[in-house]
Design a protein that fits this description.
The structure holds 2 protein chains of 2 kinds.
Chain A lengths: L45 H9 L10 H14 L2 H21 L4 H17 L11 H16 L21 H19 L3 H12 L4 H8 L3 H19 L1
Helix pairs in contact in A: 2-3, 3-4, 3-5, 4-5, 6-9, 7-9
Chain B lengths: L9 H9 L4 H13 L1 H20 L9 H10 L20 H7 L9 E2 L5 E5 L6 E7 L8 E3 L3 E7 L2 E2 L4 E2 L4 E4 L8 E2 L5 E7 L3 E3 L2 H10 L2
Antiparallel strand pairs in B: 1-2, 2-3, 3-10, 4-11, 5-8, 5-10, 6-7, 6-9
Classes of the chains: A mainly alpha, B alpha+beta.
Chain lengths: 239, 217
């Protein structure tokens, strides 16, 4: 199988496994302590409470993120259009919203979203579930498309790590990364409203901190300290 | 490289992940991450925040024909082919993203002398900020200067020392309006840095200030 040739980056030599290390700043060399037993996938009520507030869309049905990984595998291995259709139905409207909040009009956002989703198909062999959740991966593709199409700039990416032998990612790593991603989602949902709003603006409004200051009328110092507080809370929640 | 002492701030990493930095800053962040495993992992964490927000975000309905259009895009071969991911990793002084902007390795850099043996090469990015490679002979001081905006300096080779600390390969110095400093290249080796700024530097001596508009530093 040809895709194997380019797949399976295994991070060699000490690079912290891509877990949510920002929450572990004190001593990054310390082995990651995260993984609680890979037992139950707990769905707290948090998301539901949040969605009542944020009033989201029709397709708010909650999906099991490991299921998205299976979808990616099906797309990669058998070009499974049904799996792709389900991913599309869930993620495309969110990507479109992200692009519109970043300043694209509906037509451009629609066009770019189609390209983002086509890229997801095209790059399915590069997705590595031990390094990112499907949502995170979709986010990075959408973000790069935003920079390219909306800001007309190149997006410099860091040098690739030296990949190891071609192997499937370790299932334990996959599981703990997915669990941490869910934990992070819950922690973000649980942020005080004012802090969460600013984090959202920082990601979704295509605004620098000083532009957020102009838009909200809040002093720059307040914005910075709220974002810092939010990050502290996330770190705390991820301990 | 794991002996990096001076890292990126949360706000820079977050803005890099959100995609809201000027291109010149994106480049220096990407270059630092290429040299710093810790910041690479932190950047991944900030990407996860983006992913989590995407999941929580409100959605906007796609057009009825969207899925069919996307499948057409995929099957028609209209998508640009994927760039070859295998960049020659090696012992280069320049991290891969910088080589992409130089259009080659260190020997392809078009240096321009700016006096006292110091050379620079401005890399092409969008105009909201600028970025350049600096070559500072061992033991040479860069004129005392302050900053109007933010200046990020990443050491690629050698080291420099200023009033705040010593900066070696992979270290990034983050300077703002409050910092007035005279970086001096370490005596051991010529120093090569990458420096990005969103405003012109402000030199405190007469000569450099006159030269400044000509040299765009």
């Amino acid at each position: 199988m040809i895709y194997r040739k380019i797949r399976q980056p295994v991070i060699r030599g000490g690079c912290a496994r891509v877990s949510l290390t920002m929450f572990n700043l004190v001593d990054p060399s310390e082995p990651n302590v995260a993984s609680s037993p890979p037992a139950l996938r707990v769905r707290t009520g948090l998301k539901t409470e949040l969605s009542a507030k944020a009033q989201p869309l029709a397709m708010k049905t909650k999906y099991d993120p490991t299921d998205w990984i299976t979808h990616m595998t099906r797309i990669r291995d058998t070009q499974d259009q049904a799996a792709f259709a389900e991913l599309f139905q869930y993620f495309a409207p969110r990507v479109k919203a992200f692009l519109m909040r970043s300043g694209a009009d509906a037509t451009l956002a629609e066009e770019c979203t189609q390209e983002v989703m086509a890229t997801l198909w095209q790059k399915a062999h590069l997705f590595d579930a031990s390094r990112a959740s499907v949502a995170t991966w979709v986010f990075t593709i959408a973000r790069n498309r935003k920079i390219d199409a909306l800001r007309k700039q190149r997006r410099p990416e860091p040098e690739d790590l030296v990949w190891g032998p071609e192997e499937e990612p370790d299932q334990a790593d996959v599981l703990s990364l997915q669990q941490e991603s869910e934990q992070l989602g819950r922690a973000i949902a649980a942020l005080p409203e004012k802090q969460r709003e600013l984090i959202e603006k920082a990601y979704f409004g295509d605004l620098s901190h000083s532009e957020i200051a102009e838009q909200t009328g809040l002093p720059l110092g307040t914005i910075k300290s709220r974002i810092r507080l939010a990050l502290d809370r996330l770190r705390h929640a991820m301990k | 490289m794991n002996n990096v002492k001076h890292h990126l701030t949360d706000s820079l990493l977050m803005a890099y992940s959100a995609g809201t930095l000027p291109e010149a800053f994106n480049l220096i962040v990407a270059a630092h991450i290429s040299m710093c495993d810790e910041c690479r992992a932190r950047a991944a964490s900030f990407d996860s925040v983006g992913g989590a927000l995407l999941e929580e975000a409100e959605a906007v309905a796609m057009d009825d024909s969207s899925f069919a259009e996307t499948m057409r895009l995929i099957t028609s071969g209209a998508m640009a082919p994927l760039p070859t991911p295998s960049r020659p990793a090696g012992k280069s002084v320049l991290p891969a993203p910088v080589r992409d902007y130089v259009g080659g390795d260190l020997d392809s850099v078009k240096w321009q002398s700016i006096g006292m043996g110091v050379k620079q090469s401005i890399l092409p990015t969008s105009k909201d900020a600028s970025i350049r490679l600096l070559y500072i002979p061992a033991g040479t001081a860069v004129p005392d200067h302050g900053h109007r905006g933010m200046e990020l300096t990443l050491v690629l080779q050698g080291a420099f020392v200023d009033e705040t600390d010593r900066f070696g390969p992979g270290d990034i110095e983050i300077a703002d309006e409050e910092l007035n400093h005279t970086p001096i290249a370490d005596i051991g080796e010529d120093c090569i840095c990458l420096a990005a700024t969103d405003a012109p530097l402000r030199f405190n001596k007469l000569i450099p200030r006159i030269a400044q508009p000509f040299f765009r530093i």
